């Protein structure tokens, strides 16, 4: 019995050491791999072929600078990998990706597999619909087809809401946010249920933004945070210190203004979304508290 307990403890230590050495892996390989999203406006999205930009991309780049300084590797190679809502967690857990800063909700279920850095945004599930559709709130979705994105908390929220309210919705899932929005644009769905900020971003970058509106009450408020390997205390400390430093210096607010209050690529549209009270509070007292 004692031997088995000892072996289990040794195995746990070995596993923990392996999981907690992202900085060591980066130092050895001379490369850090960052994940990016292709259509999570304004957090992480493409502005030209393989050119990710956005608020979360800027956070990732700040972490890279901190890693370069920490490891004394000014010429550190930065590899970029596109991820989806469905594969982002597996690519972190299997070590393919070192850091994912996109539009990922920090919640307790995901925290079983990955760790999250300091929260950097707060959002809630709402609806993007054509103005001509007559959709104003969730009751209007009764018996209708509604889009969301595979692998998101929003899809789970909508399924639960549909079951609780007995609305008989047909929920269809796109592989990414652009794909799900296309279902609305092509009238294969009457609305797209997603984090409100992403809906504003998609609307702003549509060819005909005046034809769409974000409607409905926010079903829940959830934090976004950068995602990193589970149990990696040293790397999490570096990422947390980087984001907290940006918040304390005022640079974080400048970055926010750049992406949420100013014209953004590719069309020069302005989201015009002032900082929420939740985020203001989080800047004063940085927290990595997950959604319940």
Task: Describe the protein's topology.
Blueprint: H1 2-19, H2 22-29, E1 31-36, E2 39-40, E3 44-46, E4 52-53, H3 55-71, E5 77-82, H4 88-93, E6 99-100, E7 114-123, E8 125-130, E9 145-149, H5 153-165, E10 170-174, H6 177-185, E11 191-195, H7 196-204, E12 212-215, E13 222-229, H8 233-249, H9 251-260, H10 277-284
Parallel strand pairs: 1-5, 1-6, 9-10, 9-11
Antiparallel strand pairs: 2-3, 3-4, 7-13, 8-11, 8-12
Helix pairs in contact: 3-8
Task: Provide a descriptive summary of the structure in words.
Strands 10-9-11-8-12 form a five-stranded mixed β-sheet. A three-stranded parallel β-sheet has the order 5-1-6. Helix content is 39%, strand content 22%. The protein is of the alpha/beta class and 292 residues long. It has two domains: 20-123 and 222-284, Periplasmic binding protein-like II (D-Maltodextrin-Binding Protein, domain 2, 3-Layer(aba) Sandwich), CATH 3.40.190; 125-215, D-Maltodextrin-Binding Protein, domain 2 (3-Layer(aba) Sandwich). Mean pLDDT is 92; it is low at 1-18. The chain is built from ten helices and 13 strands.
């Amino acid at each position: 019995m004692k031997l088995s307990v000892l072996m289990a403890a040794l195995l746990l230590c070995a596993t923990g050491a392996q999981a907690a050495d992202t900085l060591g892996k980066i130092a050895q390989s001379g490369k850090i791999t960052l994940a990016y999203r292709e259509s999570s406006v304004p957090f992480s999205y493409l502005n030209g072929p393989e050119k990710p930009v956005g608020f979360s991309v800027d956070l990732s780049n700040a972490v890279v600078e901190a890693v370069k300084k920490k490891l004394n590797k000014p010429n550190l190679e930065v590899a970029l990998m596109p991820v989806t809502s469905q594969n982002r967690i597996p690519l972190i857990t299997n070590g393919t990706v070192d850091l994912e800063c996109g539009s990922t909700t920090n919640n307790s279920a995901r925290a079983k597999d990955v760790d999250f850095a300091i929260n950097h945004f707060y959002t809630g599930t709402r609806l993007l619909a054509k103005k001509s559709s007559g959709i104003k709130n969730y009751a209007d979705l009764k018996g209708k087809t509604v889009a969301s994105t595979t692998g998101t908390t929003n899809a789970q929220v909508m399924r639960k809401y549909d079951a609780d309210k007995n609305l008989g919705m047909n929920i269809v899932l796109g592989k990414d946010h652009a794909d799900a929005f296309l279902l609305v644009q092509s009238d294969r769905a009457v609305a797209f249920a997603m984090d409100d900020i992403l809906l504003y971003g998609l609307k702003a970058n549509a060819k005909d933004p005046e034809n769409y509106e974000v409607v409905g009450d926010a079903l829940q408020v959830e934090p976004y945070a950068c995602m990193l390997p589970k149990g990696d205390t040293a790397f999490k400390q570096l990422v947390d210190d980087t984001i907290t430093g940006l918040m304390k210096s005022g640079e974080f607010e400048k970055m926010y203004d750049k992406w949420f209050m100013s014209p953004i690529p590719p069309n020069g549209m302005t989201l015009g979304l002032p900082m929420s009270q939740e985020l203001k509070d989080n800047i004063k007292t940085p927290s990595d508290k997950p959604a319940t």
